[in-house]
């Protein structure tokens, strides 16, 4: 198996090494045979070479099974094309998966008393290849347009993916849309509804503005949510409020044969180089990669090690802590080693944190 390692820009260069250290531990301990493939893309490369990502980079990424990605700085320049959009489209990574599941103990750490962690367990499934991120644009001095593309094929594909997740959970799906104003959303809504019904999944729908309110006020009402590209982008970032910090939000971009894992946060140039960036989202993105690879035990170990960091208050300043990126990463790795040696998570993945 080949895994592309893309640190990217800003704090990506600080958080990805902490995730890679955990990957290295398992790869070396259990002889997984994962070949790490370093790939440079992003603003730094664009500044140096004039190109943020090349055809050769895309070819290299296509040769990998998984991608672990840090962050990209996007600049206000018409000639700078989105690296992420290009990778998602050219590798056909059509399903963006963003779990909203608080780490045990995070509400106590942050002194959040008006919520219950048990009420929050949502997966937002975002169609990742079209919508307002179609890339079909005309930019002018006094008028600019972006074409919003919704197709039945892509809508059915993402609905089927979301139904697969729903079938493993509570067997219910919520379609989020704005079909009362955006008539293209009627196709998305109807296709998702028909797909869910054909698969025996209980389906409901919500207008995006009402859902945004409900997501924060009544998250217990939702389980698996499927929506279009832009709505999914915004809503999943909003959902980070329920996690306690966007520095705790992981994500996956899934295709038929490849998968791409990244923290939701950006490159955060304001704190880049200071050693205070939260590595947990990157580490939980690695956990999602382990899940995709079928390495459920290792994913459990990582999850529990992260929970231990929250429990012991070994956290970065965004969570009120005093520890550096590396100190948090080192602590989590030490817990992974400890739990692995003790066969923690081997028999009962829900065992009380030790």
From TrEMBL:
One Gene Ontology term of the molecular function aspect: 3-isopropylmalate dehydrogenase activity
Entry keyword set: Amino-acid biosynthesis, Branched-chain amino acid biosynthesis, Leucine biosynthesis, Magnesium, Manganese, Metal-binding, NAD, Oxidoreductase
Gene Ontology biological process: L-leucine biosynthetic process
Record Pfam families: Iso_dh
Cofactor(s) recorded in Swiss-Prot or TrEMBL: Mn(2+); Mg(2+)
InterPro entries noted in UniProt: ICDH/IPMDH, IsoCit/isopropylmalate_DH_CS, IsoPropMal-DH-like_dom, LEU3_arc
Subunit structure: Homodimer.
Alphabetical list of NCBIfam families matching this protein: LEU3_arch
Descriptive protein name: 3-isopropylmalate dehydrogenase
Native source organism of the sequence: Methanimicrococcus blatticola
